[in-house]
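Action item from last week, closing it out:
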Amino acid sequence: MLGILLAIILVGTLLTTFITHYILLSSIIDYSARYHRAPSGRELMITALKPLIIILPLVFLVLSAIVIFISHRIAGPLFRLKMFMRKVGEGDLSVKLSFRNYDAIHDVADCFNEMVQNLRKKENEIPKKDISN
């Protein structure tokens, strides 16, 4: 999961860098063609910032949506695991935890179900005390 997140950050950084450089170079070319001279630093900043005001928030929104989607794949299963742990803590050993296909940490659900199954076996092995005495 961390690898996916790092790959997304890398791709986002590369895209932002390429887009920024493209806008900067095209701004220099456009300015030079329009005014027949190279832009000064201030003129270049003003010309280059205009498109970036639109592009950078879009890149931020896309990356934020991706991060939220990935975190939802982890937070959802953890919330469900927490609910099932409470049920088992209250003595309900009939639960069986499963996650959606696209959720992460399926191995945790398998371990949890194995633990509950072992608790059921141990509960059945314990002899019931005769409470009629």
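Closing note: The helical segments are 2-35, 41-89, 106-125.
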